[in-house]
Amino acid sequence: PSLRSSNLSTNTKWIQNGVTVAGRNERGSGLHQLSNTWGLCVDYDQTIYIADSSNYRLVEWKCGATAGQVVAGGNKHGNHPDQLSYPADVIIDIERDSFIISDYDNKRVVRWPRHNGKNGETIISNVGCWGLAMDNDGFFYIVDSNKQEVRRYRMGESQGTLVAGGNGQGNRLDQ
Fold this sequence. Notes:
This protein has 175 residues and is mostly beta strands. The chain has strands at residues 37-42, 48-52, 57-61, 69-73, 87-93, 98-103, 108-113, 121-125, 129-134, 140-144, 149-153, 161-165. The radius of gyration is 16 Å and the shape is globular.
């Protein structure tokens, strides 16, 4: 299971004025800044994990903090095990106590230990992964923007099962 999903009641109401909780300054590469953020997830203690795409890193931002902490990547742009290249999304795999990160520009999905992780492990290759999700049964889903499809994977699988799209770009219900 993942921490990505939220259970909201049908009566849920949102405050009209949001509060900035991360990246309170202009765009940049400092730990108090973010640049082209895409995906994020929140864990049980309200810590936010942000795919800080143009800084090639995953940043942990604790509730009330004025700066983040790099927990994956952050070693410049590249494709080595300790690097990310335009991370697009992140989910937390509770069972394995790890992050699953969409490393978009490297066309891979990596698993990265949540605590003291120095390197990521490629678990899916050759995928233009733009988005990730995990269900309660431990399957994870990849949105492949290059192939216009969504695939479902079990940990350890490299091909996955097509669950949506896969028939090219278009506006039909099978695309």
